[in-house]
Amino acid sequence: MIDLYYWTTPNGHKITMFLEEAGLKYKIFPINIGKGDQFKPEFLAIAPNNRIPAMVDHEPKGGAKPISIFESGAMLLYLAEKTGKFLPADLYGRYDAIQWTFWQMGGLGPMAGQNHHFRNYAVEKLPYAIDRYVNETNRLYGVLNKRLSDREFVAGDYSIADMAAYPWVVPYKNQGQDIDQFPHVKRWLETIGARPATMRAYAKAKEVNPNFGQPAIRTEEERKLLFGQTAAVVK
Q1: In this predicted model, what pLDDT tens digit does every residue of 121-162 receive, in sequence order?
Q2: DSSP strand pairing (26-30 vs 54-57)
Q3: Which of 64, 48, 46 is nearest to 56 (CA)?
Q4: Cα dist from 6 to 13, 30, 80, whole Å
Q5: Which domain holds residue 118?
Q6: Where is the GST N-terminal domain (predicted)?
C-alpha cells in the first residue's frame, strides 16, 4: 500500500496518473494547500519542502521498512523502478525518458507555474513578467511539438516523461497558449487524455477537491498561504 499525500495540482496529477496506470494500491491523504495543510508537522516530516505531492511506500522493492519520498520527478522515477513500468530498461531509452522528465521538472513546470502566477493570480499585472513567462512557455511548447513530430510519445513508448509533462499542458488556455499552433502537442494531449488511467486519475481529483477546475485562489487567506511564504514557514 502507498500513502499518497496529494492535492489537485499538475504535480499531484502526475502521481495519480502513474498509480492508476500501474494498478498499484494507494490511499490518498488530501493536503489542502489553500487551508495550510502543507505546514502541518506530520506532512513536513515526509515533505520538508512543504509542497505536494509526497508519498510513503509501505512495501518498497527490496526494502525492509517504509520509504518516504517527496518531489514529483523523484516519485515518478521511484515508481517506475519499483514496478519496472513506464521507463525503458535499455541504457539509451532509459536516459531518453529521464532527460525529458527532467526537462519538465526544470523547464516546463517552473515556467508554466510562473506564467500561471503572473498572468492569472498576481494582483498587480506586470506586462514584463507576463510576457517573459508566456513567451518562454510558448518556446517550451515549441520544443515539445518538435519532439513529438515523429513519434507518438515523448520518449518512444508511453513513459514517465509523458506523465510528467501532460498535466502542465492541460491548462494551456490559462497559460495564454493556442494549442492549434502545436498540432503534434494537441494530438499527444488528446491521446493521453483518452487513456482510461488518465480519466480515472482526473476523476479522483474531482472526488478529492469539489472545487477542482475552478480558480485556485478564491480568498485573501488562500493568497497569503500560497504566495506569502518565507523561511519562517519551515522553522
Answers
A1: 888 999 999 999 999 999 999 999 999 999 999 999 999 999
A2: unpaired
A3: 46
A4: 8, 5, 19
A5: 91-194
A6: 1-87
User: How many angstroms separate the CA atoms of 134 and 15, rounded?
Assistant: 26
Reported pTM: 0.95
pLDDT in tens, 90-103: 999 999 999 999 99
Q: Are residues 58 and 126 in the same domain?
A: no
Does residue 154 share a domain with residue 61? no
Domain holding 12: CATH number? Answer: 3.40.30.10
HEC sequence for the chain: CEEEEECCCHHHHHHHHHHHHHCCCEEEEECCCCCCHHHCHHHHCCCCCCCCCEEEECCCCCCCCCEEEECHHHHHHHHHHHHCCCCCCCHHHHHHHHHHHHHHHHHHHHHHHHHHHHHHHCCCCCHHHHHHHHHHHHHHHHHHHHHHHHCCECCECCCHHHHHHHHHHCCHHHHCCCHHHCHHHHHHHHHHHCCHHHHHHHHHHHHHCCCCCCCCCCCHHHHHHHHCCCHHHHC
Cell 521511484: give the residue: 78
Phi/psi of residue 26, nearest 5 degrees:
-150, 155
Confirm if 1 and 26 have CB atoms less than 8 A apart: yes
